[in-house]
Amino acid sequence: MGQADRSEGAPGDGRSPVSITVFFPCHNEQAHVQRVAEQAVNVLDALEADYEVIVVDDGSTDETGRIADGLAQADPHIRVIHHSRNLGYGAALQSGFGAATKELVFYTDGDGQFDISEMPSLLPLLADYDIVSCYRMNRQDPLMRKVNGWLWTRVIRLAFSLKIRDVDCAFKLYKRAIFDEIKMESTGALIDTEILARAVRRGYRITQRGVRHYPRTAGQQTGANWRVILRAFKELLQLRRRILSEK
Q1: Is the model's pLDDT at 48 over the cut of 70?
Q2: What is the pLDDT of residues 136-161, one digit of tens each?
Q3: 214, 115 contact by CB (below 8 A)
Q4: What is the DSSP letter of 179?
Q5: Domain count along the chain
Q6: Dihedrals φ, ψ of 186, to 5°?
Q7: Which helix (H) or strand (E) holds 173?
Q8: How far is CA 136 from CA 73, 115, 171, 215, 231, in A?
Q9: What residue numbers bound the domain in which 182 lies?
Q10: Cβ proximity of 177 and 5 under 8 Å
Q11: What is the CATH number of the domain that holds 179?
Q12: What is the tens place of the pLDDT at every residue in 159-173?
C-alpha cells in the first residue's frame, strides 16, 4: 500500500516554506470568485508560502470566467482552468488536482461558505497524516439539504467502511503525491467519496477537524437537485463494485 512521502518537519512548522496549491471549483460564482481568490492570496502571502491559486471555471454562463481571467492577469500566482461546458463537480475537482504542481493541495468551494484563513491551522497535521478531511460545524444550509447530507454520509460510511463525519465537506487538505497513485473517475457528487475510499484502501492516513460554515449570500446550490442525488446513488453502486473488485 502506498503512502505519501513524509519529509522532515511538518508543513508550516516554520523550518521550510510551505509548497501548496489552493484551488476553487466554480460554477456561476461571479459574486464570490474575486473575494475568495484574493483572500487565498492574502493568507498564502502571510505564510510566505511557495504557492499557486487555481480557479476551475466549470462552464459558467455568468461573469465568473472573465473575472477569474482578470485576476490571473493581475497576479502571476493565479491560474484559471476553463471548461467549455459544465462538466460537473467531480470533473472540476479532477481538473484542480490534475493541474496542481506543489507538494500539498487544498481545495474549497468558490461559493464563499468557508473561511480559508482556517486552512493554515491544518498544515501541521500533515506531519502525521496524509489527508485532513474537515467537517462543517453548525452547517449553514437549508434543513432539507442538511438532512440529505446526513443521510448521504451514513450511506457512504456503511458502503465503504469510512469513518468520516462529513464526507462532502469542501475543505480538505492533501499531500499531492496521493494523486500520483489513485485514479479518479467520478465526474459528479461522488468525487469526495471516491478519493477518500481509494486513499484508505491504499493505506493513506486521514484525520478530521471542524471548520466554521457560513450561509451562502448569492448564487444557487445544485447539490440538492433530485437529478444530482439520483445520479450520485447510481454512481455509488457502480463505484462500490469497482473498488471492492480491485486488489
Answers
A1: yes
A2: 987 766 677 677 777 788 888 888 88
A3: yes
A4: G
A5: 1
A6: -70, 135
A7: strand 171-175
A8: 34, 12, 9, 12, 24
A9: 19-245
A10: yes
A11: 3.90.550.10
A12: 888 899 999 899 999
Chain CA centroid to CA 223, Å: 15
Question: Is residue 103 classed as helix, strand or coil in its secondary structure?
Answer: coil
Return the number of other C-beta atoms located less than 10 Å from residue 160's C-beta. Answer: 22
| Cell output for 216 | 451562502
Residue 8 lies in a domain: no
Q: Does 94 reside within a domain?
A: yes
* Cα–Cα nearest to 172, from 145, 194, 144: 194
- The answer to whether 57 and 83 have CB atoms below 8 angstroms apart is yes
Which helix (H) or strand (E) is 26 found in, with range?
strand 19-26
Q: How far apart are CA 164 and CA 192, in angstroms?
A: 11
Looking at residue 174, its amino acid is Y
Instruction: State mean pLDDT over 17-43.
Output: 97
| Residue with cell string 457502480 | 238
Q: Could you tell me if 97 and 105 are in contact, meaning their C-beta atoms sit under 8 angstroms apart? A: yes
Residue-wise pLDDT tens digits, 106-140: 999 998 899 999 999 999 999 999 999 999 987 76
